[in-house]
Amino acid sequence: MSKPYAIRTALEEILDGLVEGDPFPPERELAQRFGVARETLRQAVHELLVEGRIERRGRGTVVAKPKLVQPLSLKSYTEGALRMGRKPGRLLVTWEDVEATPELTAALDVPDGDPVMHLERVLLADGQRIGLESTYLPRHRFGDFTETFDPTTSLYAAIRATGVRFGSAVERVETVLAAPREAALLESTTAMPMLRLHRRSLDVDDRPIEVVRSLYRGDRVAFEALLNDRD
């Protein structure tokens, strides 16, 4: 058994005896216990941090909460969080009208250069920053939202309340590193792997509803999809 694998196995055994919020032993103590160099131990600890098994808190390290598992479906982030017993929340970053780029013109079926609503929010779960969501909406369909929508609440619930019914969406998921601004908003670092989602949603009449670009902390969020082949 290789030394890195043996160290990782030993750290897994330590985690098995701990629960969420328990302090995780410091690197110096662990290196002395297992008789390995700090560098060897640090790599194994870093892997646990990236996987979201442990997290830095203040000057120490503790056992992390389980990842928030979100469905890849036409459901809102709020529904996914509540399903796991987590409290959803949002912090408004930007809410403005922007001029439609050629990409948005095609995706939202609006005239070139028309104003498009841009809503950027930090997503929270139990007060933890887990994602950064940037949504573009056609102003001619949802212009009233500037007066009626509370950006700390569910956008999908507000859209459905207008009578719009979601019909379909195409979503792409990629692994990326955050830019400095994004990392700061998510209270993370540019070295932490992120999951980037790009979604275009249509209503039941195939009219564009939104374009969404979301960035999620890979150590705090996972995604799942229900697959079947019944044909």
TrEMBL record:
Pfam family, one: UTRA
SMART domains linked: HTH_GNTR (SM00345), UTRA (SM00866)
Xref: InterPro entries: Bact_HTH_transcr_reg, Chorismate_lyase_/UTRA_dom_sf, Tscrpt_reg_HTH_GntR, UTRA, WH-like_DNA-bd_sf, WH_DNA-bd_sf
Keyword Transcription regulation included in the entry's annotation: yes
Top-level taxon in the UniProt lineage: Bacteria
Biological process, per Gene Ontology: negative regulation of DNA-templated transcription
Keywords: DNA-binding, Transcription, Transcription regulation
Molecular functions per Gene Ontology: DNA binding; DNA-binding transcription factor activity
HTH gntR-type domain: residues covered: 1-66
Name recorded for this polypeptide: Putative GntR-family transcriptional regulator
Record organism: Mycolicibacterium madagascariense
Species classification: Bacteria, Bacillati, Actinomycetota, Actinomycetes, Mycobacteriales
